[in-house]
Amino acid sequence: MARSTHRPHAETSGGSLTGAPVRTFLRTADGVSIDARYEPGAGARDLAFVVAHGFTGDADRPHVRRVARALARHGAVATFSFRGHGASGGLSTVGDREVLDLAAVVAWVRELGHSRVATVGFSMGGSVVLRHAALDGGPDAVVSVSAPARWFYRGTAPMRRLHWLVTRPAGRLVGRYGLRTRIHRRRWDPVPLSPVEAVPRIAPTPLLIVHGERDGYFPLDHPRMLAEAAGDHGELWLEPEMGHAENAAPEELLHRIGHWAAGRAG
Description:
Belongs to the AB hydrolase superfamily. FUS2 hydrolase family. Helix content is about 35%, strand content about 20%. It is built from 9 helices and 8 strands.
């Protein structure tokens, strides 16, 4: 996959690209409009974090804003809403073409002058940052939190509910009107590269895999599979008191992630 470019098509808000927050819309390589926010941070000026939220999240959700505030202590932060989420256009493909959304945001923060970019993804976003790094080669460090290792997992009740939401017409209506998430009705064809297949292709880019030992969606065989596939270029943090994704990530962990990325990116 070639590195994506963007074309802002809405007026930005917030002033200078280098000194103040900016909000704009980016255009992905396949023509989808992506709502994106940029905020300068208090840490290294050359470093930017790109935060990839989980399924049914968006750039304005409180848990995404909390992640952004924590990482802003270590560098600038770009957040965005995946396709089908929030103010972005298109329909969610639940991790497939979302790599194009992330690629557009990474290219944007490069254009804003950041020489080091760390992608930080949660749950669905955690799988997207892995596949993006494997296919596009854009980031200087990758952090995947609460990600699945393989597709179509239904071994827990939350994942069975998610499959109903995605695959059933009634579930997609609940997603659209109850969760502000517009889901594509077509199944994957072809099935995209799985996260565990993507991980070996990320080397030598530094990779951190983070997973809660109390994760109710994906049991510990998922992060362990990812870590085994990463080999020596990856690190695995298993967090004893943590559940799933952004809502469960404690402030202390987010700062550890920021510190790790600041030290490893580039």
